[in-house]
User: Fold this.
Amino acid sequence: MVKYVYDFSEGDKEMKDLLGGKGANLAEMTKLGLPVPPGFTISTDACRAYLKKGQTPESLAPEVTQKLREVEDKIGRKLGDAEDPLLVSVRSGAKFSMPGMMETVLNVGLNDQSVHGLAKMSGNERFAWDSYRRLIQMFGKTVMDIDGDLFLNAHDALKAKRAVTADTDLNADDLRELTETFKGIYEKEIGSPFPQDPRDQLDAAIEAVFRSWNTERAVIYRRREKIPNTLGTAVNVQTMVFGNMGDTSGTGVCFTRDPSTGHAGVYGDYLMNAQGEDVVAGIRNTEPLSALETQDKKSYDELRAIMRKLETHYKDMCDIEFTIERGKLWMLQTRVGKRTAAAAFRIATQLFEERLITKDEALLRVTGAQLTQLMFPQFDSSANPPLVARGMAASPGAAVGGVVFDNAQAREFKEAGKPCILVRRETNPDDLPGMVDAEGVLTARGGKTSHAAVVARGMGKTCVCGAEALDVDAQARELRVDGRVFKTGDIIAIDGTTGEIFEGEVPVADSPVTTFLTHGLEAGLEAAQTEDMKELVKAVADLVDHADKRRRLSVRANADTPQDAERSIAFGAEGIGLTRTEHMFLGERRVLVERLILSEPGSDARQEAFDKLEELQMGDFEQMLPILGGKPMTVRLIDPPLHEFLPDLTSLEVKVAVAEAKGEECAEDKQMLAQVRKMHEANPMLGLRGVRLGIVFKGLFELQIRALVRAAARLQKEGTEAHPEIMVPLVGSIRELQLVREVAEDIIAQIEKEEGVSLNIPIGCMIELPRAAVTAEHLAEEADFFSFGTNDLTQTTWGFSRDDVEGVFFPDYIENGIFGVSPFETIDVHGVGRMVKLGVENARQTKPNMKLGVCGEHGGDPESVHFFEELGMTYVSCSPFRVPVARLEAGRAVAQKEIGRDE
Amino acid sequence: MVKYVYDFSEGDKEMKDLLGGKGANLAEMTKLGLPVPPGFTISTDACRAYLKKGQTPESLAPEVTQKLREVEDKIGRKLGDAEDPLLVSVRSGAKFSMPGMMETVLNVGLNDQSVHGLAKMSGNERFAWDSYRRLIQMFGKTVMDIDGDLFLNAHDALKAKRAVTADTDLNADDLRELTETFKGIYEKEIGSPFPQDPRDQLDAAIEAVFRSWNTERAVIYRRREKIPNTLGTAVNVQTMVFGNMGDTSGTGVCFTRDPSTGHAGVYGDYLMNAQGEDVVAGIRNTEPLSALETQDKKSYDELRAIMRKLETHYKDMCDIEFTIERGKLWMLQTRVGKRTAAAAFRIATQLFEERLITKDEALLRVTGAQLTQLMFPQFDSSANPPLVARGMAASPGAAVGGVVFDNAQAREFKEAGKPCILVRRETNPDDLPGMVDAEGVLTARGGKTSHAAVVARGMGKTCVCGAEALDVDAQARELRVDGRVFKTGDIIAIDGTTGEIFEGEVPVADSPVTTFLTHGLEAGLEAAQTEDMKELVKAVADLVDHADKRRRLSVRANADTPQDAERSIAFGAEGIGLTRTEHMFLGERRVLVERLILSEPGSDARQEAFDKLEELQMGDFEQMLPILGGKPMTVRLIDPPLHEFLPDLTSLEVKVAVAEAKGEECAEDKQMLAQVRKMHEANPMLGLRGVRLGIVFKGLFELQIRALVRAAARLQKEGTEAHPEIMVPLVGSIRELQLVREVAEDIIAQIEKEEGVSLNIPIGCMIELPRAAVTAEHLAEEADFFSFGTNDLTQTTWGFSRDDVEGVFFPDYIENGIFGVSPFETIDVHGVGRMVKLGVENARQTKPNMKLGVCGEHGGDPESVHFFEELGMTYVSCSPFRVPVARLEAGRAVAQKEIGRDE
Assistant:
């Protein structure tokens, strides 16, 4: 028979699957001999059995009885005993934390008799009645599904009657009266009186916790967090201890190191004569933990000893909840503590230095996402700016600007060169233009998956969302908060890393972590203004360096300009994985491209345009290649449809129609219009672009290849190392690649002969079409390397274009659990990832050691980097700013594989 | 050691891989004891060895010597003997016929001595010198790569000198002189005299044939025909026989049945005292084969006997070439004869009736493409219209209309309701609008893979291309041919099945085959005006019936209207595999859709629009479902983006801008414009459509589902059978399908309850995104069936949109061998097909017997149907007109699999 109930002494912290996180940690503390109020955990097996059959398994009740008796014997009290009752809490606790998602019932065991016993034993009648009315309220609401407002209204009504405002102003008699009222509500709603049998209360509460696994909000939460529905929750039944039994009682929360800076030492809050709820309700201000030392030295010393023990045992910073009941310390919960990005790096290196963990373990304690946070420019905290409100940290960065309320205002500011922050109640696809024009986005409604949050993250734009304190009146163009009013143009500052909103111009400082990453440790230390910062820079340096030593994946950057190339190398890129040549056709050169398009094939005009562009493009390459100091540079031949270089069809139609309506001359525009119409495509993303364009528009690829090869030849003759690679975009079939390869090889051979040099220029292609992935074993015959363009591959695999849909339906999709996160941020492992996997396997079938890279934006996304490591790819290439993240994560991926676990 | 050379007596017709088609058939005839001029075949192994090493394998020469001596002994003459020379032909012959692609050298063995021997033995000095000069010419050109014009010019110069025009006007002396001139050319170009050693001639000719495998035109031809480059060609060396040795000699071509009608009996042409070349050159008119009976009864009888023997042996209609040399009949070639579509059906059924082949074999002798040809309306041949010229039959059908020369003219005709034929020298993407407006397309240049041909086939538009006799002067708007001039509006008729171009209004008659297919055998026989036609109808009926018995695949049709549904059922569809509901939102209902889009979510206006549309849509379904008589009807929920129902952005921008420029009122247009701008998508194909739209635009799918379910419930209550199926478009993830499924199940349950009926409505989805294919094992959990939308799947797998690219670069791509045929016509087996295969395998992993259909256009494409049969799909669904083709091919696919071969 399956065992369903575990005494706290029977488990340990590795048993999260069975006992949930909370239960496993309670067991661990019990095993360590710490003072944990006795209790037991009903396993997730029981919950799963319940969910399957719709009723608790038969053997559960006898097991609960057995464990309950053991607890009663240990404590020396009986559940709900009339004289000296044992009271218990019943709490859910799943494998993964689901804060606020499931149910808790406290004070189980109170009834019309035992409330008197509790009053007597505690010497506090008010406390006893308050505990009882809380039980009825919680039980009624969470176990019996009674509308919680009924209790709240009755509570308010009583306070009104007594003409008081605070709960604490009600006395024992009032609370006894309230208890009776609550019992009345209960009986009226349920049709039977509040259950007086303590065991009935307990069983019902346990079942309610089971049921709460499948409430709608829990299901949605899990869907969003990708927690499997099949896990089920455990139930913890634990002796109640009370921190509100006078001045020798109290409750607190502490951390074994500072969770915000990572400082070693003790941090925490304590509240005398209080329960956890009081701390949450904020009725009284907490004191620092050190206050306990003067109030109760014995308990304080015991707590300090326990903290050290826990940290040593967990080998990590721990987060602890405790209660002191009449001078007796009780441990209520512990877990590995959450921390800021800075604290994560410092704690990891401290623990390594203290020889508690290995360096690989230290590396696994930090993440690329945390490193990213540390790299953003930050508000200069020394400025001490006035805090206006807090919202959710939705997209990191620090943005300062004038308040604007709509697209038109944002555009005005943009055009006037003034930075602005778009402030909306919430955003929808209509607000996209304003989001593009603004420095940052601030909303009053919506969480981390709201439209504003998803789109801003996609754009890399600073965003704070769901700042509920804000009252955004777009009509009046006023932002009201706490009596203050901000109007158009009033300056605010938002911190997308912390969720803080400040008033006025807050100075923004470069991150010393970024200074370190680009200019080395010495420069980073110099830029750090505080000791904390210096230590942080050292910690980052230490772990990034270790990641570099560990990683197998090479990291390159995507860079189109000499500036980008310099930045890439500064950030530690081992080459350029993607140079987009179309960017080199913009600006002043656009007129040449126009001439190219408008001229007849084979005409002198076309040849002239080709020649001029070739010279200019060669100049580009001659500038960029030497920056790399011999590292490889993958040059992608022109990819977008040519009509992108011509004026926009609609604007031109309007221009011509208006000119004609007015009888104005517009022959030139009309001529251009004819060409633009001819080249117009309904779906340019699926049109004449990439290799198709290269094959159909003779001479275009040739000019680019000649420019690149000539640049390489000239540099070689000068003695400058240059290693360009030619990459063909949008290849779908081997024959396309063959055709381009033949042309390229001819050009290379010819220039080698002309210049008397010997070049070694690999020729490869992008894998960005599903067809390329599923036929990669053929393509591999003609390619020296592949680079997976996971952006385009995501678009074609899903059949949607990022530009068209990201702001339009992604928030809806995330809300509905279709995406956990935008597949353009993190690779969609099950769909697009499977396509990449097919491509990799197919390619390796033909060439086992083929160089396989990724040059989509996923190349710098932590989760995606782990996936590419798993696939055994050769390198990832990402935007320069993300290079350090990729380096760190590539190292973590290796460490993780070897240690076989992730923190 | 590999054997490279095979005497004709050593091979047979199954050895095409090794001996090529011609060699294998010569061997087969030899084996049958037929009078084949002795010779031998050098195998494709030798060719491959040559191509690999760049030289003939060492053992080849001794083997050739051996076989040559055997031939010499058999014939009693020696190669190039001065007194009585044996002459041989050297001909290429690959596994697959590559007409005109490779080289032939005749008369090998002639030199300055043997020419006299030949003259003496033939008693014809002129013949001997003519043969010799031909050898030098052919050898010089094909073996030694001398510019052929040098010989032609010398030949012309001599004729000019003699003041004659025909080659035949030159006498023996002239030809001797010409021979000397040719030898001079040869020596001047090559630097050494024409080789006098017959064996040197032979070896060089053999090597030349090997080399010819890799000429550019052969490579391009193979690429286009998808013949592997690795096959190589065989070389046939055969004793020359001469049909031009007087009146007891002659040459002919014959068929064992009429290749154009399929009539049993003997058909062929004969030319006395002539060589094959003379027939080709058209110098003299051929006589029917029966002429031979009077001229040479013995040979005629022998030939008849051989024909019967060959047909019996090959079990098929044979195409035969023969020569009579001084009363002795020689068989030069045979193969299974090419035939018209009508002949194919009649011959197949005749051979079955004669018990030569089984019915399965008969079925394999006809193709869906042939059936399609027979189904098109045809010109009434009894009208005997005046033939203007012939071009290539590029896209079948019969089109009549006024000549137009450009898009503007085509548009004028279209708008005036007058049919027209677009006539161009050749077409390019600019001509697309005109092609759309015209009934048919006629070009003077370009083959079956030209732009006009590819695009017209894609559109299903009649096309004749490459009619070289036409002189198209678009400037003058004149079509000149043979002195006649057609101007704009002059009526012509083009037959896309035969390539014929007629003058004037030619009556078009429905095909009796189509009448049979839609109305049954009796109606078909009645519609057939001739006995031939009646027999054809019977043959088609017989084989289509057999295919139906054999096929495993079910065949459905795509139909959106009651008319289409009726046609589908008439053509034998077993259900509707795709009903596109968006078509039901067009016409007068568009205004309701507009209202829907423009109204606020949740407003009364929107609800009203929903309600009205629901009623109308229910009416659609109530009309369509009963037509199917209980057969299933798969209804696809709305797929296109909603903005397709609004006015076009560009036109509206122009309208508003012009109105504003003129100071006119346009408030309403401006309001609409704001909405259109908001909903505009840069790539609508990749935008908010399909299931995405259904999830985001609340109520839309619901209205459609309600309409369908209510219609089904009402019909059921009336006692009318109705089996609708709900299909969700553009699904990429299981969660999307879950969401729609939940909604649909709720609606079904509710209506079942309201109406007191029990419906059984399967819910499935399209597989048209690569992501759906690679994750089909998940989707299958929520889907009752899948329908592969191979059109969209082709677009997303290749990353191109048919509308944007088909006319633009497909011809280039076909020319370059990237496609054999447009992947929208025949499924791209290696790319898109692999995706479909993944989808099928994944689906069957979850549900081994899941219903899997295809509803893209490939469902009616013969080659694709075979592929779907191989994958074990459940059904194909195609346009109504293609249903019979799909039925035939589905039967053929089964027969072929079992017989294990294809004809």
User: Anything to note?
Assistant: Chain A has 36 helices and 33 strands. Chain A has a mean pLDDT of 92. The radius of gyration of chain A is 33 Å. The first strand of chain A starts at residue 5 and ends at 7.
